[in-house]
Amino acid sequence: MFRKALIFAAFAVTGLLLTAAPARAAYPPDAPAIGTSSSSIQNGGSTTVMGTGWQAGTTVALTIASTPQSIGTASVRSDGTFSQDVSIPCLDAGTHTISGSGTGASGAANTASTTVTVTGTCGDPAGGGTLPHTGSNAAGVVTLASGLMLLGAVLVIAINRRRSVDV
User: Fold this and answer.
1) Cα–Cα distance measured from residue 152 to residue 75, given in angstroms and rounded to the nearest whole number
2) Are strands 109-119 and 94-103 parallel, antiparallel or unpaired?
3) Are 88 and 60 in contact (CB under 8 A)?
4) pTM as predicted
5) Residue among 49, 115, 98, 116 nearest 76 (CA)
């Protein structure tokens, strides 16, 4: 009798194991991705960078390129997402790439990127801009050179007067 109960229990457990649905884990985990709240950004303005598929509790470094510049970092929430407001530095108008580098949900180092269009020029919301300052401030050098030339002229005049008096 005990033997029959044991066999019945073994079949029951085996049946439960065969019919139970396996736990569904996302494998492989979704690749990290980022995006922005706007695809067109005013030069020197700001936007929100959002990401999914990152490892919870890690930090994602954010950069913008054509000339790579850091625009900050974002902390990844427990669900693998982040959202971070960033300021766009002064850039040439046109298409630029915003990248996020950090640890993906799989635990491997990963980089994801998106493109944005930067419009206008920095410092002027109307897009007119100002000319950049180039060259240097040479006022001090010009003043010194003028003073030395004046001193030389005074010495030449003084020497010539002394010679004409001696003759």
Assistant:
1) 68
2) antiparallel
3) no
4) 0.58
5) 49
The full DSSP string for 47-82 is EEEEEESBPTT-EEEEEEETTTEEEEEEEPPTTS-E
What are the residues whose beta carbons fall under 8 Å from the beta carbon of 92, sequence distance 6 or more?
66, 118
Whole-number pLDDT of residue 98: 95
pLDDT band at 12 (very low <50, low <70, confident <90, very high): low
What are the residue boundaries of the structural domains of the chain, listed by start? 29-119
Length of the chain measured in residues: 167
The arrangement of secondary structure in 29-119, i.e. its CATH architecture, is: Sandwich (2.60)
- Residues with Cβ < 8 Å from 88, sequence gap 6 or more? 41, 42, 43, 44, 45, 46, 47, 64, 71, 118
The amino acid at residue 12 is: A
* Neighbour order of strands in the sheet with 82-87: 33-36, 46-52, 82-87
